[in-house]
TrEMBL record:
<feature type="domain" description="HD/PDEase">
    <location>
        <begin position="26"/>
        <end position="141"/>
    </location>
</feature>
<dbReference type="InterPro" id="IPR043760">
    <property type="entry name" value="PycTM_dom"/>
</dbReference>
<keyword id="KW-0547">Nucleotide-binding</keyword>
<feature type="transmembrane region" description="Helical">
    <location>
        <begin position="261"/>
        <end position="280"/>
    </location>
</feature>
<feature type="transmembrane region" description="Helical">
    <location>
        <begin position="286"/>
        <end position="310"/>
    </location>
</feature>
<keyword id="KW-0051">Antiviral defense</keyword>
<dbReference type="InterPro" id="IPR006674">
    <property type="entry name" value="HD_domain"/>
</dbReference>
<feature type="region of interest" description="Disordered">
    <location>
        <begin position="214"/>
        <end position="238"/>
    </location>
</feature>
<dbReference type="GO" id="GO:0000166">
    <property type="term" value="F:nucleotide binding"/>
</dbReference>
<feature type="transmembrane region" description="Helical">
    <location>
        <begin position="384"/>
        <end position="407"/>
    </location>
</feature>
<keyword id="KW-1133">Transmembrane helix</keyword>
<keyword id="KW-0812">Transmembrane</keyword>
<dbReference type="InterPro" id="IPR003607">
    <property type="entry name" value="HD/PDEase_dom"/>
</dbReference>
<keyword id="KW-1003">Cell membrane</keyword>
<dbReference type="Pfam" id="PF01966">
    <property type="entry name" value="HD"/>
</dbReference>
<keyword id="KW-0472">Membrane</keyword>
<dbReference type="GO" id="GO:0005886">
    <property type="term" value="C:plasma membrane"/>
</dbReference>
Length: 411
C-alpha cells in the first residue's frame, strides 16, 4: 500500500470538490482551513512517529474532516464527511478497517471532542491547532463572518468575544505535544480576547450614553420637557472629575490657610505672653524700650486679629423656602443654607435637585464659587497677617537696636 499515492489522490479529490462546490458563505471552512489542518496533522504525527497505517488514517481524516460542509447538512458535516471517506476508501480498494478508523477520527472532531485513541487525538488537535497559534485572531474573525453569513444575523463584538472566551476556556488539547507547544500562545490569545471584551463593553456603554444624550436633546427640541425631567441624567466622567478635583483643591487650600493662621496665632500669643510677663516689668528701669515694646506688642496683636478674622466662621440663616427650590436659587450643598431646616424639608429639596441634572450642576457650581470666595478672603487676610508680622518684627528689632545704641539708660 503506497501511502503517498493514496494521499495524493485524496488531495486531488478534495481540492476538486471545493473548486466544484465553491460556496461564498464558507469563508472559514474552506480549502485553506483544510490545508492548515493537514499541515498540523503532519506535524503532530511526525512527533509521535506513527506507523504507516496510522499515518494514512490521520492524513485522510485531516483531508476529509470538513468535506461535509459542501456535501449536505452543515450541522451534521462530520457524519457526511465520514460517509464520504468510506466511499473513497472503498474506491481505492483499501481495507474497510482503515475506512472505519478514518470515519471515527472525523466523528471525534464533533464539539465537544471525545477522542478515544492517539490517532483521534491527533486529528482533534490538528482541527483546533489554530487556537494556540498567532493566526488565531485572523481565523476567529473568519469564523464569525461565516456564521453571520450563514445565519444572516449580525453578531456583536462583545457577544462574539464572550463565546470565544468560553470556548477557549473549556477547550483542552488532547496530545501532550500540543499542550506543551501551544499552551503559552493559547493563553496569550485568551488574554487578548478578554482585553477586547472589556474594550467592547466599554464602547457599548459609551455608545449607550451617547444615544441617551442625543435622545434627550431631541426631546428638548420637540418640547417634551416634562418627560425629560423624569429621566435621570448622569454626569459625564470628565465633569465629575472636574468638580471633584476642584472641590478637593479648594478644601485642601482652605485647610492650609487655617493651619498657617493657627501658626501665626500661636507664635504671637507666645510673644505677647513674654512681653507682658518679662519686658513690661523692666520698662521702669529701661524707659528707652517703651516705644519698641509698644511696636512689638501692636504687631503681635494686629497679626492675631488678622489671623482670627481669616479663620472665623460665618454662619448664615440656614433656611430656604419652597419658592427658592422652584426658582432654583437655593444651594443645598452648603450646610449654612439648611442647618435650621427639618430633615423632611431638606430631603424633599435634595430629591428635587437629584431629579434635575441642570439644577444639580448649578448647585455644584454655586458651591465651588462660594468656596473660592471664602478662600480668597482667607488668603487675603492671611497675607495681611504675615505682612504685618514680617514688617512689624523688622520695625521692632530696629527700634530696640536704636533705643539701645542711641538712647541708652544713663546709670
Amino acid at each position: 500500500m503506497e501511502i503517498s499515492s493514496v494521499i495524493a489522490t485524496a488531495q486531488s479529490y478534495i481540492t476538486r470538490q471545493y473548486e466544484q462546490h465553491a460556496d461564498p458563505v464558507l469563508v472559514y471552512h474552506n480549502l485553506a482551513h483544510t490545508l492548515q489542518v493537514v499541515s498540523a496533522a503532519e506535524q503532530i504525527a511526525a512527533y509521535y512517529r506513527l506507523t504507516e497505517a496510522d499515518q494514512l488514517v490521520v492524513y485522510l481524516a485531516a483531508w476529509f474532516h470538513d468535506l461535509g460542509y459542501i456535501l449536505g447538512d452543515r450541522t451534521q458535516h462530520e457524519a457526511a464527511g465520514a460517509e464520504a471517506v468510506k466511499t473513497f476508501i472503498a474506491q481505492q480498494q483499501l481495507p474497510e478497517s482503515i475506512g472505519q478508523a478514518v470515519a471515527d477520527c472525523i466523528l471525534a472532531t464533533r464539539i465537544p471532542q471525545h477522542p478515544r485513541n492517539l490517532v483521534e487525538q491527533i486529528v482533534c488537535d490538528a482541527d483546533l491547532f489554530h487556537l494556540g497559534s498567532k493566526d488565531f485572531s485572523k481565523r476567529n474573525k473568519l469564523l464569525r463572518t461565516e456564521l453571520e453569513l450563514a445565519t444572516e444575523q449580525k453578531i456583536s463584538g462583545a457577544d462574539w468575544a464572550k463565546s470565544s472566551i468560553q470556548f477557549l476556556e473549556s477547550h483542552t488539547y488532547h496530545t501532550a505535544y500540543c499542550r506543551t507547544l501551544l499552551k503559552q500562545q493559547k493563553e496569550e490569545n485568551l488574554e487578548k480576547l478578554r482585553g477586547k471584551l472589556e474594550q467592547k463593553l466599554a464602547e457599548a456603554l459609551e455608545e449607550k450614553k451617547d444615544k441617551t444624550f442625543k435622545a434627550d436633546k431631541e426631546e428638548m427640541k420637540e418640547g417634551k420637557k416634562e418627560e425629560k425631567k423624569e429621566k435621570e441624567k448622569k454626569p459625564e466622567r470628565g465633569v465629575e472629575t472636574m468638580f471633584r478635583t476642584t472641590s478637593t483643591n479648594h478644601i485642601r487650600l482652605s485647610s492650609m490657610a487655617d493651619s498657617k493662621a493657627n501658626i501665626m496665632i500661636s507664635v504671637n500669643a507666645i510673644i505677647i505672653s513674654v512681653l507682658l510677663s518679662v519686658l513690661l516689668r523692666k520698662l521702669e528701669d529701661y524707659p528707652n524700650f517703651i516705644l519698641p515694646a509698644i511696636i512689638f506688642l501692636t504687631t503681635s496683636v494686629t497679626t492675631i486679629v488678622f489671623s482670627v478674622l481669616a479663620t472665623r466662621p460665618n454662619v448664615t440663616s440656614g433656611r430656604f423656602t419652597d419658592q427658592d427650590i422652584r426658582s432654583k436659587k437655593a444651594n443645598l450643598l452648603f450646610f449654612g443654607n439648611f442647618h435650621q431646616m427639618t430633615y423632611q424639608e431638606y430631603e424633599q429639596g435634595m430629591e428635587t435637585i437629584m431629579k434635575e441634572g441642570e439644577y444639580l450642576y448649578s448647585n455644584m457650581i454655586h458651591d465651588i464659587y462660594n468656596l473660592g470666595v471664602v478662600l480668597g478672603r482667607k488668603y487675603r487676610l492671611l497675607r495681611l497677617a504675615y505682612n504685618t508680622f514680617m514688617f512689624g518684627i523688622v520695625a521692632s528689632v530696629l527700634a530696640f537696636t536704636i533705643a539701645a545704641i542711641f538712647f541708652p539708660v544713663k546709670g
